[in-house]
From TrEMBL:
InterPro entries: HTH_17 (IPR041657), SinI_DNA-bd (IPR010093)
Pfam families: HTH_17
Protein name stated in the entry: Helix-turn-helix domain-containing protein
Highest taxon of the lineage: Bacteria
GO molecular function, one term: DNA binding
The organism of origin for this protein: Streptomyces acidicola
Domain called Helix-turn-helix: residue spans: 19-72
Polar residues bias spans: 92-106
Length: 106
């Protein structure tokens, strides 16, 4: 059975490898606000140091939390809409009726 000292030692070990949200943002190549949104939504685990009433400087992200987040992320697939590109159904691409009616109107 773990003792309170064992639990404290585990938390301290996590803190030694903890990153600031800005460092996580730099590592992930995203805006710091994105990291704060991930924290707020519960997708990125943090450790809070102090009350954090005046500033958010008390948030630390364990390196293990970054690894967990990356492992749970979906890999990027070209054409999945993440680029902002429109998906055009195959039926529309293969249809000649739409093209002929559009050229008749113009």
């Amino acid at each position: 059975m773990p003792t309170p000292n064992d639990e404290l030692a585990e938390e301290l070990a996590q803190l030694q490898g903890a990153l600031k949200p800005a460092e996580v943002a730099e590592y992930l190549e995203v805006h710091p606000a994105t990291v704060y949104r991930l924290i707020a939504s519960g997708q990125l685990r943090t450790i809070r140091i102090g009350s954090g009433r005046k500033r958010r400087t008390g948030l630390k992200v364990p390196q293990s939390a970054v690894v967990e987040y990356l492992r749970s992320s979906q890999p990027f697939k070209p054409g999945d809409g993440a680029t902002g590109a429109l998906r055009i159904p195959e039926s529309v691409l293969n249809s000649t009726d739409t093209l002929s009616s559009a050229t008749e109107v113009a």
